[in-house]
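All the exercises in this workshop are built on plain-text protein records. The record below serves as our worked example for the rest of this section.
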Amino acid sequence: MIFYFSGTGNTRWVAERICRLLDDRLYSIADWYTDMQTQDIQPVFTFEPDEQIGFIFPVYSWGPPAIVLSFIEKMRWNGYNGNYTYFICTCGDDIGLTGSVFRQSLKQKGYPLHAGFSVFMPNTYVALPGFNIDDPAVSRHKVDQTRGRLQSIAEIIKKRMNHHFELHEGQFPWLKSHIIRPLFNRFLMTDKPFKATEACISCGRCVQVCPVGNIHLEKGRPLWSGQCTSCLSCFHHCPANAIQFGNQTKGKAQYHPSDYLGKTDSKDTTDRDR
């Protein structure tokens, strides 16, 4: 069983490929988000004795997205008997101590982590000075590299290799994950700077692609509801390039997953483009 969260679509692509390689089942964490928030529902999943458990998610400021950690905290594991558990995180560059943060979240629930991997995907975070999407050639290289690497990762998972971690932590991982990340989550994990310019065509695409249902239209214009994950899916998918994050995204290019990943098709039940 594979649980995934994806903002712009990069991680969904990875999750779908791993799902096919392992002939597994795929579940979207975002589909549970609204019920968890509004009804305080605990997702319950029943595992077969020999079933592997996978989590696939992007790296946000050198750590797992808050929605992923919240999901793990609230989910209940029925039938668990030491099942092989792994994670794959997608990143534009390095991941800091994302692996340690994720391992700790499982440990608090009493579940060990057997393997973890980081894979490169095109950069999508553009909401700070100096941050921009990759050049097309770099994006294509990352996708091609990861496409081949997922084959070897799937073989490692099939063999249930224990204590196996292939993680690109980069320089100063402790500083990034334990100092910068908390500051980012406290001060920059916000949707207040988002706005729609006069170029908005009221198509509702931003509402459709928001993975956590944080956007709605009022008088034909998007409004954000304060539950943003900072995935920037609304910015990248707007067909009129009308959504801006304050002045930080002004003049910056959008990332279009279809230019590099092609059409997605998964075994999960969601029909939203995440």
Summary: The chain has two domains: 2-184, 194-245. The domain at 194-245 is CATH 3.30.70.20 (Alpha-Beta Plaits). The longest strand covers residues 85-91. The mean pLDDT is 93.
